[in-house]
Description:
This protein is an alpha/beta fold. It contains 29 helices and 32 strands. Helix 2 packs parallel to helix 4.
Amino acid sequence: MDLLSPILDVARCLWDSTAKRAVYIRELPENLNSLRTAMEELKNVYKDVNEKVDREEKLLLKKRTHVVDGWILSVEAMEKEVTDLLAKGDGEIQKKCFGTSCCPKNCRASYKIGKMVLRKMEDVALKKMEGSKFIVVAEPLPSPVVRERPLVKTVGLDSLFDHVCVQLQDEKVGSVGLYGMGGVGKTTLLTRINNEFLKSRDEFDAVIWVTVSRPAIVEKVQQVLLNKLEIPKDKWEGRSEDERKEEIFNVLKTKKFVLLLDDMWEPLDLFAVGIPPLNNGNKSKVVFTTRLSTVCLDMGAKGIEVNSLEWEEAFALFQKYVGEDTINSHPDIPELAEIVAKECAGLPLALITIGRAMAGTRTPVEWERKIKMLKNYPAKFPGMENHLFSRLAFSYDSLQDEATKSCFLYCSIFPEDYEIHCNELVQLWIGEGFLDESDDLKKARDAGEAIIESLYQACLLEINYPNYDYKEGLTKRVKMHDVIRDMALWLACQNGNKKQKRFVVVDEGKSVTSQEVEEWKGTQRISLVSLTFEEHIESPSFPDLQTLLLGNRRGLFSLPSGFFSYMPNLTVLDLGNHFELDGLPMEISKLVTLQYLNLSNTGIRKIPIELRNLKKLRILILNNMRRLQRIPSQIISGLSSLQLLSIMNCWQATKGDCRGLLEELQGLTFMTEVSISLCKSVLLPIQTLLDSQKLQRCLKHLKVEQCSDMNSLHLLFPYLEEVELSCCFKLKDVILLHSEKEAVHFTFPRDKYFNHLYRVTIHYCPNLIRLTCLIYAPNLKLLYISRCNYLEEVIQVEESRVSEIASNLSLFSRLRFLSLLSLPKLSSICGQSLLFPSLKLMHMSGCPNLRKLPFDSNFKVSEKLVGIIGEQEWWNQLEWEDQTITRQLTPYFMPSSCQPLSGNG
């Protein structure tokens, strides 16, 4: 037995091994079927996982995890392996020993396959279990450096885009503000800047776009940044503003970033948001868009204005949206398309909106019908109200108060492309009662100027300074962009909550029927410019009318009797520029609510005595009424509320002794501003002005001409703004005081007595020898002197204290325009050097003895300088203290044949 035990153990082991192998062979068919089934189950799990991965990658923009990706690849490889193994197993089963049904022909091969099948079944089961346990199959992608934003091909922005890119490359520029009116293309430009960074992803670590809108809420901007910077929510959700600020700051301080802020309506405190200071060290940038130029200043940004398109670019953009097929559908349509495109005045949003509306319009008749609608009823034109005006109106809604909104809408009452004199506009606003400070004209004017500036900064008004014209002085004008005006009229005329008032504006060249006039009964403001009536119009009845502007109507010889009988609430009446209008009806006395009356540039000869009944009249303007005779006594004194009277260039009315008129003005309690022309015998009227402390303070504009009895002119008028002297043949000097020892009235220091004087024009005063009094005019902006034959020096510094005072007051430091013409003896402007830091234009002609200009080595060319006009021979003979001055000024010299240029004043 001891010998048999080892033998039996070996036999038993051999048997067990043989039995196991026999099982592999015997159960091979069944195991193959089990493997086939298990693989099908794994494939179903694979499909579920794969579909979930595809869904999250495509819809949620996620990326599959590495584990899932490896599992999917391994299953795909396993499927191939199982398929091959099943094929081998099936093949092996088919091979049997001859005459048997179960004995494999090659036991060794069957054994190996059977063993592999069992192992593969275990692998398949494991993979199936792994796939069934996947909960997260994909993770969010890391944010790209820059996300592309939708953008169609831009038109007309190339040069501006290049300019912005240059600014962004400048290390000294940290932030750039793109400002301009609504619809001008600011967001489009910002989008193009965003997409440009796709070409240079490595230049910045992050390019982030935030739409700010209004109000600019720090928390809202922070949330956008926290999400885009992928800062985990548990670090900021539910935290304070300061804690969120720290999280943003700590991420961005390590990055070189570009922050793009769209639609800014007010300054945003970037530091409060968490934005690190922009400096040369981090080289990060901020670019934003706004409709308000003040936002650029408040944000310390480099402001770049986005303007309307030039004509060629505008028409190209319009044609793009109309479509080539439509433009070419009829030979007349290209010309009609130009008419439509010009109505958009280069505003891209208008060009796109109207271009889309005209697409498919293929007949000239349809084009003409839509052109008529666009010109007469723009709000009814397809897309204008919903897509254009409503978007532009955001600028109106953002205005600071109702007074500013009323003043803005009022500008639309003037004709299309009309340039409105700012001074006249503010006076109208005062007459309308828009300005809270209207009881104090100075404060009201300041408030009006501030509103004009705010509307300009909001890109709702355009400011223009005309060509230099000494007759108009420094006349600032404003105008409305055509589309902005259409939007304003839409706001003013709609019956919604925005504005209850209704305007009727009939532009030049239009004609009106009596039926249309009848429909105006409920109107509050009517503006009729160069209007013609198709038929006789009876005296109108306008019970709610507050404003009536009847400018530039030709052929209006007189107003029909009863014209003013049914306008009980009229506040503003402007009959200016009716050159043929020769009289006023007596029932003007019924306009008891009237506060503003302008009769300038009319042919009216007599002011009816009934005018004195206008007890609420505050502003009366009678300029350039050449036929106006002496104003009857008691008319002016009867206007008990009068604050402003302007009676310039009314030669018959103010010729000679007009002391009666001045005395009536002196007796008016509320009189604040007087502008008057005095003609011929002026000594007594001027003495009346000098003797009255009230009139001294009221006088704003004084013109004296055709005077042959005055040797010197004494100006004791502390609020005087403009002085004009013409044809004063004996005048030798204009002086501030009667003598050096004479005390000045009130508390005004002597060196402030011309503090408000900004314009002086002197023409044909042949005996004038000096104008040294101008040293007391530190705010002088325009000086025009011509045909003063004996004038040798404008400012004579050898006079006592002149040099000291001139130095203290920075003589001519604000002078913009200087014209010295036909002054044969003039040899010097001033005996000391002057800097002229504000000079825009110098015009010298007929001054052969003026060989030297008052410039020395300290002189620097003013940034505003446009040119120096004079004869070429005079320029060539000038003597210069420093040749550097010659080199600086020569590029600005223009021979007399050249015309002065226009520009911002």
